[in-house]
Design brief:
With 135 residues, the protein is mostly helical. It has helices at 2-17, 21-45, 53-58, 61-92, 105-134.
């Protein structure tokens, strides 16, 4: 009886180590949508470049907010895509052990996609407000 329980838990553990095709498809879709959202936010928001610290300090609050959100979207894009790619690659092969390198990268990447969306919307709104201020 003990051996049957051990065998059942071993089979269950083996199933969790196998790569998941659904997770692969979802992560690939999330990476594609993250990239598309970033491109659209930058195209629709326009160019809010600030060349110096003095120019940034003299800029209106809406323009400062849009530049800050733009910088955060680029950082979140880099970190989010990196975690999704690491998650895709670690999901692609069977894992013999559960280490930090294989732990929750896909879920962290998905959360960063939502955070990127929030900062992209904030960037778009503040960039449009900053553009309307100039007129």
């Amino acid at each position: 009886m003990l051996q049957q329980g051990f065998s059942a838990s071993k089979q269950k553990l083996h199933k969790t180590r196998d790569p998941s095709h659904d997770a692969f498809k979802l992560a690939l879709g999330a990476a594609a949508l993250l990239t598309l959202a970033h491109v659209l936010a930058n195209l629709l928001g326009g160019c809010m470049c600030v060349c110096s610290q003095e120019e940034f300090q003299r800029a209106s609050p809406n323009r400062q907010l849009s530049v800050a959100c733009l910088i955060f979207t680029w950082i979140i894009l880099a970190v989010g895509l990196s975690t999704l790619v690491i998650g895709i690659l670690s999901n692609n092969k069977s894992r013999a052990s559960y280490g930090f390198t294989h732990h929750h990268f896909l879920s962290i990447g998905g959360i960063l996609c939502f955070v990127h969306g929030l900062f992209s919307v904030a960037y778009y709104v503040s960039a449009i407000a900053a553009t309307d201020e100039k007129k």
